[in-house]
Amino acid sequence: MNSKQLQLQAFERLLTIMDELREKCPWDKKQTFESLRHLTIEETYELGDAILNHDLNEIKKELGDLLLHIVFYAKIGSETDSFDMADVCNDICDKLVHRHPHIYSDTVVADEEEVKQNWEKLKLKEGKKSVLEGVPAGLPALVKASRIQDKVKGVGFDWEEPHQVWDKVQEELGELQAEVLAGNQEKMEAEFGDVLFSMINYARFLNINPEDALERTNKKFIKRFQYLESKAATLGKPLMDMTLAEMDVFWNEAKKL
């Protein structure tokens, strides 16, 4: 039995187990699209954490959890004859074939960038009125900004050189500082948003994923602060009773570690 046959056999096993759980398990029988939604979001973030940690074994486990959710949604859809797992697979297969004419037709592309541009053009031909329709409204703002910029880049709306984007960052920082000095809270917030948006744009030109970069900084800060907490506990001194200078000693130790 070859690798593909083994994979199909494993997938068939998962589908069978899903059928059995939906029929016999009290918890699984009660689930709906809505009740699973927040759990799916959690599983996606857990997968994201595993990827950032470069933990291949954990990535495998989280992919399984996410795959279970996909199979679960398809099972629920099949119960009202709306769609089943075959429909889900065939829809994505058809979309992939249609949106990769450089593989399945006679279109020629020079590089990855042309592939992205063709992808956006094909979506517009499919009836979408805006290239931004594909950006989910519920995305976290940082991720949404990245997706918006990727989308408009696909139709040529973009800066030409990284230094132009950096100049824009400097311009937005100046406008923010002006509003800070003026003390206008509403305008400060607007300009702060512009600074973040332009920084995310600059990250794209540096081939940096801003979400990953910020999350790595979050993890780094947490590790260093928890080191500080452990040192304070060893001294029997609450953090709130320590001076900033005392805390800085341990913070610098954590940075070296």
Structural class: mainly alpha
Number of strands: 0
The low-pLDDT segments are none
Helical percentage: over 70%
Q: Name the helix and strand elements from N-terminus to C-terminus, one letter apiece.
A: HHHHHHHHHHHH
CA-atom Rg in angstroms: 25 Å
Features:
12 helices; 0% strand; 257 residues; mainly alpha; extended; single chain
Mind explaining what this structure looks like?
The structure is a single chain. With 257 residues, the chain is mostly helical. 76% of the residues lie in helices and 0% in strands. It has twelve helices and no strands. The protein has helices at residues 3-24, 26-30, 33-52, 56-78, 85-98, 101-104, 112-125, 141-153, 162-182, 185-205, 210-235, 244-256. Helix 11 packs across helix 12. It is extended and about 65 Å long. 8% of the residues are buried. The mean pLDDT is 92.
